[in-house]
Amino acid sequence: xxxxxxxxxxxxxxxxxxxxxxxxxxxxxxxxxxxxxxxxxxxxxxxxxxxxxxxxxxxxxxxxxxxxxxxxxxxxxxxxxxxxxxxxxxxxxxxxxxxxxxxxxxxxxxxxxxxxxxxxxxxxxxxxxxxxxxxxxxxxxxxxxxxxxxxxxxxxxxxxxxxxxxxxxxxxxxxxxxxxxxxxxxxxxxxxxxxxxxxxxxxxxxxxxxxxxxxxxxxxxxxxxxxxxxxxxxxxxxxxxxxxxxxxxxxxxxxxxxxxxxxxxxxxxxxxxxxxxxxxxxxxxxxxxxxxxxxxxxxxxxxxxxxxxxxxxxxxxxxxxxxxxxxxxxxxxxxxxxxxxxxxxxxx
Amino acid sequence: xxxxxxxxxxxxxxxxxxxxxxxxxxxxxxxxxxxxxxxxxxxxxxxxxxxxxxxxxxxxxxxxxxxxxxxxxxxxxxxxxxxxxxxxxxxxxxxxxxxxxxxxxxxxxxxxxxxxxxxxxxxxxxxxxxxxxxxxxxxxxxxxxxxxxxxxxxxxxxxxxxxxxxxxxxxxxxxxxxxxxxxxxxxxxxxxxxxxxxxxxxxxxxxxxxxxxxxxxxxxxxxxxxxxxxxxxxxxxxxxxxxxxxxxxxxxxxxxxxxxxxxxxxxxxxxxxxxxxxxxxxxxxxxxxxxxxxxxxxxxxxxxxxxxxxxxxxxxxxxxxxxxxxxxxxxxxxxxxxxxxxxxxxxx
DNA sequence: CTGTTAGCGCGTTCAT
DNA sequence: ATGAACGCGCTAACAG
Lengths: 348, 348
Prior knowledge:
The structure is a homodimer.
Chain A: H1 6-13, H2 17-25, H3 32-45, H4 51-58, E1 63-68, H5 76-89, E2 93-98, H6 101-105, H7 116-128, E3 134-137, E4 155-158, E5 166-168, H8 172-185, E6 191-195, H9 201-216, E7 226-228, H10 233-244, E8 252-255, H11 258-270, E9 280-285, E10 298-301, H12 304-320, E11 333-335, H13 344-347
Parallel strand pairs in A: 1-2, 1-3, 3-4, 4-5, 6-7, 6-8, 8-9, 9-10
Antiparallel strand pairs in A: 10-11
Helix pairs in contact in A: 1-2, 1-3, 5-12, 8-9, 10-11
Chain A binds a DNA duplex through helix 2 and helix 4.
């Protein structure tokens, strides 16, 4: 099987390669009859132009690099899907690099030394392949300033950020504010919170939203109602148990991820409390499993898909030189399931 | 900022472009002093060769295309991760195409007419980009013969297959055989099965394994113990309820996915039966949520990561012309959690 | 307006 | 160690 190129087509159609190119790209008028003849040959030989050669001349690859810290972490696939949706519409292709961070360094991603070289190599490879920009997808929101250098190629971070660089993140503060507002609307006033680790940005932001809502709705602020977990199921379990043992326990708990919320569910059940009758719970993340627990966890859904779309859009604008930098920060959405009801007191 | 190329380097180092190339690739001996000088300039200007130009000449892109039917479906990310692991070791890059099938056609993927053109376009684009091969990742195991034409570029299917093409799949029959063997080892003999849709390959294969195990272990074969679900939680719920209402209900149920198993769990609980004391359940898929239910579902873990590795390996061998076609079909692994115990009768 | 010739992009590699 | 052809498609310049 001979490899066919533009000149093979030209030969068989009795025209020059230039004409073939013009037909292919509609760059110039070609007499209909000639055009038809050329197209017929192209069709017959099933010719497809070589994008590599094209790119070399045009200096455009229509390709961006996506660096995912770990595609197996729950937030990543949906973000990639969003990137795809926007990329496809603009005929952009995606060169995917998977850092496999989870498998490489476990949860020790705070210390970037362990993978900085690895990340930079990924960038370098992508640049060699002439990507027109890069999207970096984190597995935990944090500051990645200085991790990588893209030598002036545009980059957009999402689910993480870097100073002086574009990043797409959702609105954490608003999310927990909304969650509290929802609980208040159900009649709760004694609302506790189980936070993630306090060195985490989302934890701080979500706490801000909690605190702001407490203030605005003039709810009692009880330091005993604030627990700091480590994101793991067990910590949710233990901290919820502590809250329930309080003299005057909360009637609702906002928990900063579904994993800890699942732990809380277990704790409640072991203490003979029924969720939501005796205790209401709102989680975070809308992890798949939160729908299958009994009761299903009412939770804040992260706008991952939108983040992907917005990240790609922002990058595309930068690539195209469009100066409209309309970076939005999308909102979380409350998914109502079965873990919230009015407080017991209200039922009496 | 000037764009630097090999000739810029040559100029500054007072050598020819050929020499620079030889230094860069170690393709030929270069006098150490010259070499050093060249390397210094490269370092200073932070030069990186243009892979596009390289590819044009060498006709190798070190890039494969991965077509995922839908990256947001549970089995896909882990397969991609496996592909990455092997690809990275062999310096191969991945151009990812996401068909977004789930969002496009829902569960109507049996009728390929709806997306055949879309899939073929994806292949064509990838071929234009000169990928050296393609891996196609399905979202449901099925025959995709004739869906796409890769014009003799090597392709490997995984989590689906096509006639006369290489495909990597796990061993379904063995998996359900193993599950039954495990239940038997726990003392069960009245073992029911809730199957997925019967037009599905895995359903048939898993049923084969079930039947084979029944025969080998000389267990009673009761047609009433065979239920056919539709993979959804509700069907698991209803079918399990039916099984439990039997005169002589089974002491264990093998269920062909965790979703239906979750439904079964709910049915059991509503009938006041305790899992695993009164009823043992083994699921399939090892979906994330199966670990968080109470009790945690004992389930067959799919070797997704290995499938990714093997798919990439098989493709790599084809690309390299290595003739060792050692396609293995990896095995599922039983994940023991809390939904299995000895049968009630055995406890009496 | 339609078609052709020839040089270019950026590294690689053969012949000198 | 070097000059120059080459890979494949694009496009400026030119011709009819």
